[in-house]
Design goal:
By secondary structure, this protein is mainly alpha-helical. It folds into two domains: 1-51; 68-204, Cell wall hydrolase SleB, domain 1 (Arc Repressor Mutant, subunit A). It has six helices and three strands. The chain has helices spanning 3-45, 72-78, 87-100, 105-121, 128-132, 154-168, and strands at 180-183, 194-198, 201-204. The protein has a three-stranded antiparallel β-sheet with strand order 1-3-2, with helices on one face. Helix 3 packs across helix 4 (105-121) and helix 4 (105-121) packs across helix 6 (154-168). The longest helix has 43 residues, at 3-45. The radius of gyration is 43 Å and the shape is globular. It starts with a helix and ends with a strand.
Amino acid sequence: MSTKFKYAAAISLAATFLTTLFSSAGSQASAQSFNAPAAIAATFISQPVVQPLAPTLSDTPEVSPEARASTLAELVAETSIPATLSKDLECLAGAVFFEAKSESLAGQLAVGRVIVARANSGRFPASYCGVVFQPSQFSFVRGGAMPAINRDSRAWQTAVRIAKIADEGEWKSPVEGAMFFHAAYVSPRWGKTRMAKVDGHIFYR
């Protein structure tokens, strides 16, 4: 083999080697440039995703008693009668019975809620019995006692249910906040704010 041919072959081999080397380096650089956005994307995707938690029972407002029944009549029907009445609940039911047993459920509740409002006001006795038996307040109280009640009657059972609803604040009276009332057939000269007439009674603040 001539010296010129060996020299040319060596140059060709060197050129091939350099071309391969640069091509490999270029490929790696290209691969790095191409992969860089993927690495950034992966970093972005790996960030924690914050989602709102499902509401817990404590996050939701309590369901109001009104929402458990669509009407007062429905609530009354669903209200159980205690096996034994407390003295105060009996006084409250007695007032509802004697003052409004012939009236609508709303009228009975209005009477019951007046007694509850008085007992909670600080201006009257602090118990239902104290309010009911306060002298000169309720005409059905005679000699410091209520008349006899037929406790098997439907009217009494309704009065007890209304009293329980009024005591627990389970339904708003049509004259909620009233502190006084009188029969519609009388006209006392009271310097009080009239609210409304409900059945046979007129209610005042």
